[in-house]
Amino acid sequence: MTKRKEGRKFNRKTGQRRAFLRSLTVNVIRKERIVTTEARAREIRSLVERAVTIAKKETLAGRRLLAARLHDPVAVKKLFEDIAPRYKGRNGGYTRIIKSGAARKRDGVRTATIEFI
């Protein structure tokens, strides 16, 4: 029996898709709020929340793991020094997706804002 594949493809090959999702994740961490499509916001939500969970542990191994995953030392530093300490007493649910009524002009896709709570 075939099972449904997890994750969206975004009409990209594997390497392009990984880089695309990585850049969106880094942008959310650096800016703490971005406006994107609903599908993209849903897809990067889990990546951002996993990164915050790793950063909350404050270990060297976690710092190296995030440095390898994100490829952005500024984002890793911000995660460990600013974002993770905010959520010490919280067990998940660090991001919020707010759907906007507006659609993109070029293709009509609905937009959403993903931000930290």
From TrEMBL:
Coiled coil: none annotated. Keywords: Ribonucleoprotein, Ribosomal protein. GO terms for biological process: translation. InterPro entries: Ribosomal_bL17 (IPR000456), Ribosomal_bL17_sf (IPR036373). One of its GO terms (molecular function) is structural constituent of ribosome. One of its GO terms (cellular component) is large ribosomal subunit. Gene3D superfamilies: Ribosomal protein L17. The keyword Cytoplasm does not apply. NCBIfam families: L17 (TIGR00059). HAMAP family: Ribosomal_bL17. This is Large ribosomal subunit protein bL17. The gene is rplQ.
